[in-house]
Amino acid sequence: VIVSVLGVGLIGGSFALAARERLGATVRGFDPGGLDAALARGVVQEAAATPGEAVAGADLVLVAAPVGVLAETVAAALATGDATVTDVGSVKRGLPEHPRFIGGHPLAGAETAGVAHARADLFDGATWYLTPSAVSEGVRYERLHRALADIGAQPAAVDAQTHDRMLASVSHLPHVLANVLVSHAAASLGGEALPVTGPSFRDMTRVAGANTAIWADIYRANADALGDAIDDAIARLQEAKAALDGDVAAWNDAAAGDRRRLLEAELGGGMVHELRVAVPNRPGVVAEVALALGHAGVNIADMALSPAPDRASGTISLWIAGEDTARRAQELVEGLGLPVARA
Amino acid sequence: VIVSVLGVGLIGGSFALAARERLGATVRGFDPGGLDAALARGVVQEAAATPGEAVAGADLVLVAAPVGVLAETVAAALATGDATVTDVGSVKRGLPEHPRFIGGHPLAGAETAGVAHARADLFDGATWYLTPSAVSEGVRYERLHRALADIGAQPAAVDAQTHDRMLASVSHLPHVLANVLVSHAAASLGGEALPVTGPSFRDMTRVAGANTAIWADIYRANADALGDAIDDAIARLQEAKAALDGDVAAWNDAAAGDRRRLLEAELGGGMVHELRVAVPNRPGVVAEVALALGHAGVNIADMALSPAPDRASGTISLWIAGEDTARRAQELVEGLGLPVARA
Q1: What percent of chain A has pLDDT over 70?
Q2: Higher pLDDT pick, A138 / A96
Q3: Quick one: which of A29, A147, B8, B284 has the fewest CB in 10 Å?
Q4: Stated pTM of the model
Q5: Is B179 an 8 Å CB contact of chain A?
């Protein structure tokens, strides 16, 4: 089996390592930035000088190019040969419809970039969306699905439009809102220092101004679905403003219900409990809590810190699935002498 | 010195403990929910049956009532006696203008409620906003300022309108946006499971549907400033949508600049560096990282986890102030065998 990877960074490189180790493939790479590091690490076995050379004779081609040049790179990969071609872009419309092409998007590892961080196990357990078009050949879909499952991922078919709408809602719109909030606050505060008011502002602006080289392309490529999501957010903000003079409690309760349902769906139906731990602000206290729970085998589904650099104290919020587990977690943390409140 | 506290929960109780320990005060309490726990813990020395009884003969009265009944409780505290009266509400307009009243708002400890968690050191280093009106007596302001500094807080004067605008921007609007995002996603996803797409969605919806008993009152009390903030957010979302067809890179860069300036102002001018650590998803790994940095005296200014319950890996983002410290942190984490990328 010959697998070609066009764009050998974190995602392409990890797929290359997994294809070699788990599919027994020979991996050929092409990267406009060069392949020295990938060859030195053994991430690819063969280096191609052009996309055409990479594709020739390959069985499977994975295009891991930036979103801005994705469509043209996919088209180049389809121009010759007989390989099944797939990609890993986070926006799935605007790509060629072709019998040999099936779009893809693994939900994994976008935070640490570069082939230096590539790992064969990057996709273990990760959802890997596949977006076949009406003309994609069924036998190629079935083979690609099996290959992805064999490298440890969980392939899931979804149409390109639904994919882009979902990602607009849970990834692209959150980034837009983070930008909006941080720019609003900067304008509103003027020269005032940012008040230290708990974790909400920090949490919500962490992704503000995310890497423009990546995100400008994503925003542009998903402008249709993201535009719709922005319109919906505007309508909901108008409702929120109206609720300030109406039944703001019902409005807030509805959001609480929506959050609970989303979290429970994500965690497979278990009821999620929140523990709030008041902690002194000293190095090592997060470690103590995490260790105490880790040693007891308690899994922390989610965690938020408000470290408060100038203050004597802070709060760790822990989300734990299952009432019994949450109660056990509370006992363990209280055993460290830290007060715990159930939210 | 006699200090009276109306509403003996986390904030009122902590102030009571601090007033006794650090001001040498005798503390009298009133709480409509009873004072058994506060008396048993020694948080108050005297229990009053009514607000009037609590205020009689007191030098300083701290009103720690819920925002919904705050104005009337402050008015009751001012009805008799000669005490200086202050409060701890998170919205500062709509309170009485009175020579003996000075509004207040400590930025501390709102996460774990109840007198059981009260601590004398809760306010150490915390900003404590004071919002004197035009008729507040100067000598009372000076005495209150000194008392708060003596219990460890950092009093800062601000007019009520500016206070409410700031809090709308950095606390109330973030809560509204979290509600909007979670309700948008619930509607957009329908029955689909929430895709596991990195920390942005989780981070931004953690505070969604926060405790309605507290937040409905806050939203209502600060409806004017919050309404303005919502309008500004809507205008910025409209700009964002327009940027999708225009210079979206410049729009994103502007947000990145705003975030950097806000973080630097908060941390006192030091440049903040972000490290992204790729971690296997096993109990104890957060602890290892936190311990390694804690033992070396490296302070983590902010931290975000994407634990990915179904996946083989996750990412810890660490924000560290100062280039030398950030480089040291990177070496320490890499020494644990974990790959680190600079964002």
Answers
A1: 90
A2: A96
A3: B284
A4: 0.78
A5: yes
For testing the chain A interface, which of B182, B332, B333 should be mutated: the one with the most A CBs within 10 Å? B182
| pLDDT value of position B309 | 42
A190 vs B: CB within 8 A: no
User: How far is residue A211's CA from residue A90's CA, in Å, rounded to a whole number?
Assistant: 15
Q: How far apart are CA A101 and CA A103, in angstroms?
A: 7
Phi and psi dihedrals of B196, rounded to 5? -85, 95
Rounded CA separation A23/A286 (Å)? 40
Which helix (H) or strand (E) segment holds residue B306: the answer is strand B302-306
Q: In angstroms, what separates the C-alpha of A326 from chain B's closest C-alpha?
A: 16
Put residue B34 in one of left, alpha, beta given phi > 0 → left and psi -120 to 50 → alpha. Answer: left
Please work out, in degrees rounded to the nearest 5, the angle formed at the alpha carbon of residue A33 by the alpha carbons of A28 and A34. 50
Among A90, A171, A212, A259, which would you mutate to test the B interface (most chain B Cβ atoms within 10 Å of its Cβ)?
Answer: A259
Tokens of B240: 């964002």
Mean pLDDT, rounded, for B270-286: 74
B342 shares contact with chain A (CB less than 8 Å): no
Q: How far is CA A297 from the centre of its chain?
A: 26
**Higher confidence at residue A200 or residue B258?**
B258
d(CA A280, CA A308): 10
Average predicted confidence (pLDDT) for chain B? 87
Task: Point out which residues pair with B102 in neighbouring strands.
Answer: B86, B132
Q: Does A293 touch chain B (CB under 8 A)?
A: yes
pLDDT higher than 60, residue B311: no
Q: Is the pLDDT of residue A310 over 50?
A: no
Q: Give CA–CA dist A98/A135, Å, rounded.
A: 6
| Mean pLDDT, residues A128-150 taken together | 89
In this prediction the ipTM stands at: 0.77
Classify each residue of A249-288 as buried b or exposed e, where b means 16 or more C-beta atoms within 10 Å of its C-beta. Answer: bebbebbbebbbebbeebbeeeebbbbbbbbebebebbbb
